[in-house]
Specification:
By secondary structure, the protein is an alpha+beta fold. Helix 3 crosses helix 4.
Length: 328
Amino acid sequence: MKKRVLDLRDENPLLDIAAYARKGRLPTPAERLHISLTVHRAPEVMVKVSGGARTLSGVERHLAYIGRNGELSLGIDANGKAAGKGFERGVVRDWNLDVDALQNHTRNSAPPRKSPKLVHNIIFSMPPGTSPSAVWKAVRKLALNEWALQHRYAMALHTDHDHPHVHVVLKAVSERGVRLNIRKATLRAWRSQFAANLRQLSVDANATERAVRRQSRAPILDGIFRANLRGQSSHMSRRRAAPRVSHVANSESAEEIAGERKLLATRNDVTTGWRKMAAILAESGDSHGADDIRRFEAHMQPVKTEARLTNEHAFGSPQSTRERGEPN
């Protein structure tokens, strides 16, 4: 399974520590705040597109799911609400999704191809212990800022898991007929805004890429992760059942080797940036800030691909990257 790896040389991360350090100057107050939140490991916000429905029945099923079949009240747009058995059909009618579905069918009648999404399904989440009310208010403020009078949306707060989270169903086509395409930059902007809204509510929250903080591998997909927790993941079962990958030269696939090298290159960029920033702060007299960065950088997790981690979980830890003579 191909995983996305953020290469800081090609993309603009939320916390571009390498670029900050290259400037060779003291960070701005906003940059200082971002650095401080990161090195002190403030809770990270999560914003994730969990899919989206392409059919009217698919929209209704997801609305019913997040509304617990009418038991929960959903926030609709700025001030509306929806609840009660069968509420989802009223939302679909009110949003004129039948018109969008008909237009999609007409456009894609020949040649046949996958219909565009009628809605996007998005999750905004925080770690356990975060105030559910604060999470709701932060997402509501983001929704008003991003989508009010443009895209129809419905929101539901779930607190039946340890981590409070808000499900958002967002109509893909605006009231002016403009389709919203959610790109990486869109998600980065939403994460940054979500975290800022939480901080305004006195909740510690941060938004950075994994590569810039302690983690260096892409996460396992939700479905695989949840199935693995239940012991029902066919993907992880196949991984564990496969012969053990020998950790010697030429034993791994070309894709895994290339992925690990990219992870290492990104980690080197991040490490260099953190060390230069520590030096800049130390030279300015901010010894505490410099020490915080050095402690943070010293405890960053080692770089590992999913394949290597799977092998370690199944068979025990192999030689480290440094022991194998690869660049660090």
